[in-house]
């Protein structure tokens, strides 16, 4: 009886191999040959799933975004923590607070640089940016809806500021973890969100 191949699982395996090559060697070294080797496949087998490097990168980046969204949607509120703590922990989904998220963020930063020279990736980059921005805007909106937020906050400006802070913290921590530590990243986020509250 022929072996049944789960094609989605194989594509996920290839995407995860792509992440590994990007993190270990950089996105410029993420050739189809190297990714195929990291995934334990032949180059021909990989090309069966992805006809070009751009297509492979696009799928790999979509998977990063989907995983973040799935984690965020799976979160359930518990009365053991305050709504502010719940919202703060929600923002952790897009910060390099553990090894899994660190890998995702490293890959995303590498991808973002690639977007500057590969216009075929621009649409995906814009979509992920928009999704993340809306998620962070929802954090500010929730603070307002729960009547935690100070009166008169400008929702759009605060969403922009939170997005810039999150991106900046992620980059500082990844590039200079000894100067901007994990704990400082967490404390800075908590301080900022608290500063929006009454």
UniProtKB/TrEMBL annotation:
It comes from Ornithinibacillus hominis. Residues 8-68 form the HTH tetR-type domain. Residues 31-50 bind DNA. Pfam families: TetR_C_6, TetR_N. Keywords: DNA-binding, Repressor, Transcription, Transcription regulation. Gene3D superfamilies: Tetracycline Repressor, domain 2. It comes from the Bacteria. This is TetR family transcriptional regulator. The keyword Transcription regulation applies. One of its GO terms (molecular function) is DNA binding. The keyword Transcription regulation applies.
């Amino acid at each position: 009886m022929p072996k049944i191949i789960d094609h989605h699982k194989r594509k996920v395996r290839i995407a995860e191999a792509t992440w590994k090559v990007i993190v270990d060697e950089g996105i410029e070294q993420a050739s189809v040959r190297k990714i195929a080797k990291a995934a334990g496949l032949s180059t021909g087998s990989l090309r069966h799933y992805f006809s070009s490097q751009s297509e492979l990168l696009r799928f790999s980046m979509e998977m990063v975004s989907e995983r973040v969204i799935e984690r965020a949607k799976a979160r359930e509120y518990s009365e053991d923590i305050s709504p502010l703590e719940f919202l703060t922990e929600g923002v952790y989904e897009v910060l390099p607070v553990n090894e899994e998220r660190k890998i995702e963020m490293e890959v995303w930063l590498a991808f973002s640089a690639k977007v500057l020279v590969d216009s075929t990736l621009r649409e995906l980059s814009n979509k992920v940016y928009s999704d993340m921005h809306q998620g962070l805007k929802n954090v500010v909106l929730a603070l307002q809806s729960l009547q935690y937020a100070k009166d008169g906050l400008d929702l759009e400006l605060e969403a922009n500021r939170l997005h810039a802070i999150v991106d900046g913290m992620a980059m500082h921590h990844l590039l200079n973890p000894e100067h901007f530590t994990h704990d400082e990243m967490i404390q800075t986020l908590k301080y900022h969100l608290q500063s929006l509250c009454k």
